[in-house]
Design goal:
Strand content: under 5%
Largest sheet: none
Shape: elongated
Order of helices and strands: HH
Structural class: mainly alpha
Radius of gyration: 20 Å
Length: 83
């Protein structure tokens, strides 16, 4: 089942927002253990990238992200017109 483009955009926005939440949480927890602010920001940025990558990978693997119309076909050499 292919989702429409607006639904796919909403999934990406939800992934972005959850990644942002994870990043803030990771940065605050890192800072609370004594890390300087710059280190905590870098730690949160790494958590953001990791979580966003995981979300997009899972959504793509489940077939929820991609061609919204489902008309993409695999290239089949036998479909080429014969001369």
């Amino acid at each position: 089942m292919r989702l429409t483009f607006p639904v796919q955009v909403l999934l990406v926005i939800v992934s972005f927002m959850s990644s942002l939440l994870i990043a803030v949480l990771a940065g605050v927890l890192s800072h609370s253990t004594g890390t300087q602010v710059a280190g905590a920001v870098l730690y949160g940025g790494g958590a953001f990238i990791a979580w966003m990558t995981l979300c997009v990978t899972v959504l793509t693997a489940l077939g929820l992200l991609g061609n919204p119309r489902g008309n993409a076909r695999a290239h089949n050499p036998s479909d080429a017109p014969s001369a």
